């Protein structure tokens, strides 16, 4: 008799654990794994003049006999044609440069907000978040108006007398950098801010007490302790920027190819869904593999320390 | 704790020619409108174990932070070893501090934490290794050297924090509630260890505590603080036996206070009228004019039971036992002497509990000697 309520409690706790773990797995399965499998499947198929424009991998040839045809042509093409390699390298390079600029700009800003007086912090954070209330597309279009040859920036610089002829900024790589850094800076600042506000200020007092000047205390205490924030912010900027399409398309030069734009072209202009999917799979691999390796390395370091 | 005879003689604050190691000169620290430290002057001598005692918010921690250089005084000056350090930043002071939260660097091992201060001094590697070994040995934490702060217990963290602050061989060590985060058992052991360590190393310790027992056990002298001011600076014995004001008398231990007026003065004794027909005779160390309002303070353990009430006798009073608190070694009795007044008396339980000296509602007479209390005017 005494056991019954106990067992019931155990059963409900098992049920609630199942739900707790189950819901995120279900979510991931439905919105990540399933689309991934679909894209992977398309990438291994052949293009066709049909709706949707590819041939299914499997086919019932006879009664009860299933034929599966895997087409690796798309991946071969990506490997053989230089244009894709160039686009990948260019995308990674742009993402890397933008991540570094965001870090260099974002760290001092996050630090300043985290160390500001308590009542100033929320308004300052609001200023960081505020641009999100306007459509992303509109903000990128606004940069066209600013960076144009007869745009705001050139007018201003001419008026100042710094230059005599307007600068060609729009449709160059520089414009892409400006647009990307502007758009993604909040994604760097927010995780850094979250990390830096948690930093115990007495640690810096302890460092000062032990003979550390402020700059060294920053290098030896603040910086290493904010590493998780730096990694999180960099991931949040780097990963989406590699596949970024809108900003290079609107602000960049037509000559500089990025993977996102290439994918768009394959998907919508060339109607080559399999090739576009293959590009997406390769891109995913390029992003996930270093990430997993890095986590392994971190784990090994942690274990080595204990 | 037993104090060796030669140490009892070693009381530099008694010597007018001795130069203080730390001199705090009329220091005030304001935060907005609040005076955290209010016009404090204090001398601390070499080799002392000095305690700042007070309830939370009395300014004791701020005073310690002023010594560390983590705060700068609004007015006043601070000298350490004769040098004016009032505006010297913390990283240039010959002082180390042990923080209340320990403030160990979470991303460094025990060893790296201890080494941190030594690296700032740019000591060569060999010397650093020697110092680390010395500290690990001194605080018996060698097995923990490779662990990180989140992998050791609270008591062990306390030792690491102490090791880190001692590693630079400071002349002055500041300790902010050093035992605050430890449980009672560990605290008592650590108190003795801390005192032994201090005597062995000959470092001047200044510690902040809100625990009067801790301050009494460890200190050479105690400064009792309240509302940013120092109420009394003295040895633990003097603070307990001869408080100079009501605040200190009530803050340290328990005390019976009788308010009254000076009626007569005979030699070095005075008579205080403390209610109708209740006269107290007290030894007085300073003259009191007739009619002065005074407070007589007598500790509960200085009260005695008398066999029979004698209305004519001095310092004797009759009452009824109202409350008994049995603490094992002693019992506390609260005796009602009239409508508004209760007197507290402690008696040692010499006999087992079954033969309790007093019971509830029992009529008793208590007395005390003229030398067992103090007369307070503040």
Please give a structural write-up.
The complex is a heterodimer of chains A (306) and B (378). Chain A is built from 13 helices and two strands. Chain A has 306 residues and is mostly helical. Chain A has a domain at 82-271: MetI-like fold. Chain A has a two-stranded antiparallel sheet. The longest helix of chain A has 41 residues, at 3-43. Chain A starts with a helix and ends with a helix. The mean pLDDT of chain A is 88. Chain B is of the alpha+beta class and 378 residues long. Chain B folds into two domains: 5-94 and 170-249, 3-Layer(aba) Sandwich (Rossmann fold), CATH 3.40.50.300; 254-376, Nucleic acid-binding proteins (OB fold (Dihydrolipoamide Acetyltransferase, E2P)), CATH 2.40.50.140. Chain B has nine helices and 20 strands. Chain B has helices at residues 5-9, 60-68, 110-120, 125-138, 154-166, 184-201, 212-218, 236-241, 246-251; strands at residues 22-31, 34-44, 49-53, 75-80, 83-84, 95-98, 172-176, 204-209, 221-226, 229-234, 256-266, 269-273, 279-283, 293-298, 304-306, 316-326, 330-336, 342-348, 363-367, 373-376. In chain B, the strands form four sheets. A six-stranded mixed β-sheet of chain B has the order 6-7-8-3-9-10, with helices on both faces. Chain B has a five-stranded antiparallel β-sheet with strand order 13-12-11-14-20, with no helix packed on it. In chain B, strands 15-19-16-17-18 form a five-stranded antiparallel β-sheet, with no helix packed on it. Mean pLDDT of chain B is 88; it is low at 1-5. Chain A: It is a multi-pass membrane protein. Chain A: Keywords: Cell membrane, Membrane, Transmembrane, Transmembrane helix, Transport. Chain A: It holds the Pfam family BPD_transp_1. Chain A: Its main location: membrane. Chain A: It comes from Imhoffiella purpurea. Chain B: InterPro entries: AAA+_ATPase, ABC_SmlMolc_Importer, ABC_transporter-like_ATP-bd, ABC_transporter-like_CS, Mo/tungstate-bd_C_term_dom, P-loop_NTPase, PotA-like, Transp-assoc_OB_typ2.
